[in-house]
Design brief:
β8 and β9 form a beta hairpin. The chain is α+β, with helices and mostly antiparallel strands. The strands form two sheets. The protein has a nine-stranded mixed beta sheet. The chain contains six helices and 16 strands. One of its GO terms (cellular component) is endosome membrane. It comes from Piaya cayana. Its main location: cytoplasm. It is found in: Cytoplasm.
Length: 348
């Protein structure tokens, strides 16, 4: 251990998205390759000696207690836990961080030593994983509000790969097996419950961790919200959502270069007649079992919406990734709707 294939794979995956800026500490991690990366994991992150690093992924993350603070993280999956190596700017981003972190005063701010915070969720504490619409994100839920994290991969391939790796390491856990099912006769086994319909698209892994996927009701709820924003002019039955993608709205700041602060996370929804931007709550829904009251905001909040018939032109940037699109509408002058989309979505 480790195999050459694994070393090559985690080296290839160890790349920070080019459109997001991170602190010096995470830039250092992104510069590690092969054995150096594995040694860094065992020397600085791993909690037990015999755990193995199985997967690495860069993703934006949200915490349940700070739903408005999206931060870049290096996500490391081992045979014992999921580690979120966070940008050190996260500590100062929100006053409520004292709930999550107990950081002692240090004298290393003016030195060449860079400090990062690492949030750990042990696999034995993992209870469920909720996959978002069209595999654009997933939420990991543990035993309390402190153990709920959403990874905004904005990429179905990264989500799918992480799910495969997570299921593989969960299969290694030594947990008490479920009790043997009680023998049933033919009529009770096949006469009542064999409806052929999958409820909530819920998969219970052998480790007893639930993997929950979106069902038709979530698409229906989204279509209903979109129809409401269209002032009821469209029949809900004929409304088709053509595209759902997590992207960024680009805020132009005169005289300054594009940076992380100019990219505002948005959910883009395209129908046959309209283009919408929503502020979506990716962390609070569905409600955790311990939640005593509903979230303070709706899952979807309309940020902008335009009619396709008012679309004048679409401008495409020259960069390869991420792809920048500018939608210019003629209904409002001097107001452009700008989106960053990855090239993956053009091939579908």
């Amino acid at each position: 251990y480790p195999s050459e294939f694994l070393l090559q794979k985690i080296t290839e995956d160890n790349q920070i998205p080019v459109h997001l800026r991170v602190s010096a500490s995470l830039q250092y991690v992104a510069g590690l390759k092969g054995n150096a990366l594995v040694e860094f994991f065992h020397g600085n992150i791993a909690e037990v000696e015999n755990e193995e690093l199985r997967h690495l992924m860069w993703s934006s993350v949200l915490f349940y207690k700070t739903p408005n603070v999206e931060v870049m993280a290096c996500v490391l999956l081992s045979t014992k836990a999921i580690y979120f190596l966070l940008d050190d700017s996260f500590i100062h981003a929100d006053e409520h961080q004292s709930v999550l972190w107990n950081k002692e005063n240090s004298d290393c701010e003016n030195s060449s030593f860079h400090l990062s915070c690492c949030f750990v969720l042990k696999l034995n504490d993992l209870q469920s994983v909720n996959v978002g619409l069209f595999d654009q994100y997933f939420r990991i839920t543990g035993p309390s509000a402190d153990h709920i994290v959403t990874c905004l991969t904005r990429d179905s391939y990264n989500t799918h790969t992480f799910m495969q790796q997570l299921m593989a390491v969960l299969s290694l856990l030594a947990r008490t097996p479920s009790p043997e099912p009680v023998d049933k006769d033919f009529y009770s086994e096949f006469g009542s419950k064999n409806t052929g319909k999958m409820e909530n698209y819920e998969l219970i892994h052998s480790s007893r961790v639930k993997f929950i996927y979106p069902n038709e009701e979530e698409i229906g709820d989204l279509a209903f919200v979109v129809a409401e924003k269209m002032d009821g002019l469209t029949n809900l039955q004929s409304l088709n959502i053509l595209l759902y993608v997590l992207a960024f709205q680009v805020n132009n700041v005169a005289g300054s270069a594009q940076n992380a602060n100019s990219l505002q996370p948005k959910t883009l929804i395209l129908t046959s007649s309209d283009l919408f931007l929503f502020d979506e709550d990716y962390i609070s829904y569905p409600l955790p079992e311990f939640a005593k009251e509903p979230p303070k905001r709706d899952k979807y909040q309309l940020a902008d919406g335009r009619r396709i018939r008012d679309l004048d032109r679409v401008l495409m940037g020259y960069q390869t990734y991420p792809q920048a699109l500018t939608f210019v509408f003629d209904d409002v002058q001097n107001r452009d709707l700008m989106q960053n989309l990855t090239l993956d979505h053009f091939g579908k």
